[in-house]
Request: fold
Amino acid sequence: MFKSIKKHRDFFFLLLLVFGGLFLFAYRLNQIPPGLYVDETTCAYNAYSILKTSKDEYGKAFPVWFRLFGSYTPPLFIYSLVPLIALFGLKVWVIRLPSVLAGLAVIGLVFYFLKSISRKGSFLPYLGSLLLLICPWLVFYSRLGYEVTLAMAVFSFGVYWLYQGLSRPRFLLLGMVALSLSTYGAYTQRYLVPLFIIGFVVLFFKKIFQESNRKHFLLACLLALLIQLPQLVLIGTPAFRVKGELLYSQVISNYSVNHLGWLPYRLALIPSFVRELFSQWASYFSPRSLFSLPDADLQRSVPELSVFYDWMLIPYLVGLWTLWQARKKDWAKLVFLWLLLAPLPAALVSDPFSTQRALPIFLPLLVVISLGTEKLLLVFRRRYLRVLVFVFLMAYSLLFLWRSYFVFFPKERTLSWNWGYDQLAKIIQESPDRHFVIDQSRVKPIYIQLLFYWQYPPAKLHQILGPRVADDYYQNTEFNSSYDLANVEIRPIIWEKDIYRDQVLIGDELSISSQQAEEHFLEMLFEIKDPLDKLTFRAYQTNPDLKCQSGPTNPRCQF
Amino acid sequence: MKKFNWQLLFFCSLILLTPWFWRLLLANQTITFFVCLVSVLLFYFNRFKKGQLLLLVCFFLLLGMQLVGVERRDLLSLDNDQQRVQQMRLGEYPPIRIGQVWIPLAHWLEGRSETILFYRIKQNVFELIDPNLYFFANHPRERAGMDEFEKLPFFFFPLFVFGFLSELGKKGLGYYFLFLILPVLLLSVWGNIGRLGPFCLFPFLMISIFDGCWFLAKKICSRA
Reply:
């Protein structure tokens, strides 16, 4: 039996990784992350709408990009949800399942990639895939229900297959198809893939255009272009340019004025832009960002844990040096290219160190860290010492992963993850005779959360919305989050009118103060609080009779 | 020797191009003198492997000036908000038991002085080794309440990376890392906030930048 295990070592190891991955990525998937983030519900509801009516929430049949909140999100993830929802229903774990599977696939990919670059008998593939399995960045993104992880996985497979295609021409086809498909995965890939392909061709020009590969590569390019046709048709529409406001034009302008005032303004913009781009790009390699600080966006991070573990700093530096030493080898050139280009789309945006937008850089960084860890472990001549040190590092890492992700995260990030909306939806659904007004001035769009939890019939929603948006789908990019659904109005509270109507006003801590409640005779109905007793929603019943008694001359009291 | 003179001249011109040098000069000429002296001595040692005694003496004097010039930070005390978070987190842990033995993991990870010390030193180390601190005034992840200033021109950053990587492969790296690791460790424990920044790292940074220039120059010349 042991001989059989040794012979099929890789298979059993991958099986172990799958079980380990399933545990880390799927344990309590319904509860962690806490709540269901608005990006998850919008993807899920649109997938549900496609399943039921072949149209998205706005009534557009099989859109190339999903309008959602005016973001025109690439569709791959949403379409991948459709069969899953058909099979298992509209549930939280179902929405997050594609990311779980993508995370597992990526672990297998890294195993085979490291195997292809290491010498026979090396423990690098085993070490690298185990490190990847427990990486905070991967654990976090494999447990959420929107597009980024799937896009990263498809992109990574494309890169790997393209690299394999240098020696096995048929993989060039697979690689280019996967890369082209990944542009339907997430925004980052839309800009990254063309850059990467150009860089790849420049770097491996001779090999790609040698006789055995040339035909396959040209055919692959043709296929990739065909796949891009639906997007190319829409490239001139406003829907293509919606993310333009994220570019840091104000920052560049300020820097030009404050630090380069001695240059003409227009001339100063160029070095200011270069500096800003460089600083954003460099932050994706900064040890402080990678090993110490979490993502600045509370929704995209866990408390007290960065994207990699702190001890990985030393392997990171050693790995960079190892990669540098091997820079003439094809695999090292590929990793360098991947490393240098992957953060570029994210570096064009003002968000400081966006783990979401820079997700494609995750794998090459992990490769670097694995190379460094292997180099450092080889300092120990005795195998048992290497195993002991590695086991200690894994245990240390898993302890802090547990602390941050499974202990702090579910309690401290509830507001960032829209916790409590299911309870709100249930309360509203159980009171069909009451009228509700929900103030969402400081939160993400609430309407989609209600639609999701109610499993609101998409056909009914299409009737309410009418054809206004669907007819002008890619031109009309303006999004209005105010909705009028059944017995709910989602809009800011209009104090001159709303207190004179018999209804329930719902908002967060700042929507209605205690003085306002007292002044307008509002009666607190219910509160929704998170596990740490922080308020998510507070609801007040209006009392128009009492209000009118206090001010009977108000014209609204005549009715 | 003639080649060395030209290299030294180039190295000095690199120093003059840095905003950090001018900020130091305007603020404290003694520190500026020692910073430049140590940089030149390190440069000389890097080339000829001579003069280490003088270099070490000057460097330790510079370290002393650095420690005097930074704000002494208490690594163990918690302000009101930090205490609130600590209490909150002590309550977040589930009870952990192995058989009949309760494991006070919450206290070990949140309450013990050693762990607080470990987290603080770690935070300081990472702040000090962040290249963005030196080349981009910590942009885009500026620290709240700090006076961040650009120490080295941003276009020196790739030169620094090339220089750092090319130096790593060479033998006799002990002195090279002495000028990186020792200051980082000392400042992480003592305190890393000062008006003039961690200037004791200036020599290390300038040597790396020069090595990067040298590396690129050799590459270009070999291709030409």
Summary: The longest strand of chain A covers residues 523-529. The interface with chain B takes residues 274-276, 278-280, 282-283, 285-289, 291-293, 296, 310, 313, 317, 320-321, 324-325, 350, 352-353, 403, 407-408, 411-412, 532 of chain A (CB under 8 Å).
